[in-house]
Specification:
The chain has about 350 residues and is mainly β. It has two domains: about 170 residues, icosahedral virus (Jelly Rolls); about 170 residues, icosahedral virus (Jelly Rolls, Sandwich), CATH 2.60.120.660. The protein is about 0% helix and about 50% strand. The chain contains no helices and 25 strands. The strands form four sheets. Strands 1, 2, 3, 4, 5, 7, 10, 12 and 13 form a nine-stranded mixed beta sheet that branches. Strands 14, 15, 18, 22, 24 and 25 form a six-stranded antiparallel beta sheet that branches. A hairpin with a 2-residue loop joins strand 2 and strand 3. The N terminus is likely disordered.
Length: about 350
């Protein structure tokens, strides 16, 4: 990933916005990537609404695509557990949302939580935005918090290069965005996927989870592609109202230390010339995450920054994420609600 320097500071929605050259998680968009940092203090109140954190205006032609990545780091004013969302939204100039949004969600476990930096919870979120028509679009990173049993708290956004919006500076022609099937917050959608029940232990997201597999065609002459995925899961402990599809008898009790262990792996499959069989398989190293019931929701970020295109294979790819429940209460794979909670992107390099 390349970063462009931009000395121009823009004042948007009452805060300073600067494009800077700062190291970030390794990705490899086609062309440069601009990063816009939150540079002034901001508190996200307990109101259950999206609060704008960083915004960028984009002038795009019809069909032009941009990869957006946001990072929201926050500290809570309470030691209690509260909801925290990071969401990417693009609006038209009238303020109307255009297309789908993408969200990463996790409970913030309090100002004394034992994260890498005590009390500091970072969330990343990725989205592919494709302009439906030529025009100016306002794309932003938003934060949200809420809880049912407290009113006098807020989340303080961490600055100093810890909270930002990244935008690919060039069109990402031919890029594709995968989203998981619909799955309501309560989990009563028929298309919800549960793992760790008596019926099912594993699945391939975007492949056999109720999704229709998408065969994505790389651009002519491309020698490499990039793939990434954000997968959100929710633990289904006894008493939670997030998992209507799991009987109480199959759930475990929530305790101060209860958790579920889940394994994740992303597969990028280049198909043969007929588009029917695997010709080349590229995978991430499997990662096992321990998801506490206190956190309740958890997002796993998977990335293959540069996958070679094998000229002896066909020109189509499949993207899928293997998810396996290992221990603890069952889990729900979160999908599309009013926003998309499980997403994948492939781009030509």
């Amino acid at each position: 990933m390349l970063f462009r320097r931009n000395a121009v500071l823009a004042a948007l929605a009452g805060f300073a916005l600067a494009a800077v050259s700062v190291p970030a998680p390794a990705l490899a968009d086609r062309g440069a990537v601009d990063q816009f940092n939150r540079t002034t203090s901001l508190d996200i109140p307990r109101e259950g609404r999206n609060v704008l954190v960083v915004e960028k205006s984009l002038d795009l032609a019809a069909g032009e695509a941009r990869h957006l990545r946001g990072r929201l780091e926050a500290v809570s004013s309470t030691t209690g557990t509260v909801a925290m969302n990071a969401t990417l939204i693009c609006n038209d100039q009238a303020g109307t949302k255009v297309g789908s949004s993408a969200t990463s969600s996790r409970n913030h476990e309090g100002s004394d939580a034992s994260y890498k930096d005590t009390g500091h919870l970072p969330l990343y979120v990725d989205m592919l935005f494709v302009a439906p028509a030529a025009g100016t679009y306002l794309c932003g990173l938003y934060g949200l918090t809420d809880v049912s049993n407290a009113t006098d708290y807020h989340l303080a956004v961490v600055t100093g290069g810890k909270t930002w919006l990244q935008v690919s500076a060039e069109d990402q022609p031919g890029a594709n965005w995968w989203r998981g099937p619909a799955c309501s917050s309560s989990g009563d959608s028929v298309s919800c996927t549960y793992l760790g029940t008596s019926a099912k232990a594993d699945t391939f997201v975007f492949y056999n989870d109720g999704s229709t597999p998408v065969k994505w065609r790389h651009a002519p002459g491309a020698t490499a592609v990039q793939a990434l995925a954000n997968v959100t899961v929710t633990t289904c402990y006894q008493g939670t109202k997030s998992c209507a599809g799991v009987p109480e008898s199959e759930r475990l009790a929530r305790t101060a230390t209860s958790s579920s262990s889940v394994s994740f792996r992303m597969d990028v499959i280049q198909l043969d010339a007929a588009g029917s069989h695997t010709c080349r398989l590229t995978q991430t190293t499997p990662v096992t995450n321990k998801i506490s019931d206190e956190a309740h929701h958890y997002v796993t970020y998977l990335s293959l920054p540069s996958v070679p295109v094998d000229s002896s294979c066909g020109d189509q790819f499949l993207l899928r994420v293997y998810v396996k429940h290992l221990s603890g209460s069952p889990i729900k794979i979160d999908g599309q609600q009013s926003t998309s909670l499980t997403n994948g992107i492939m781009m030509n390099l």
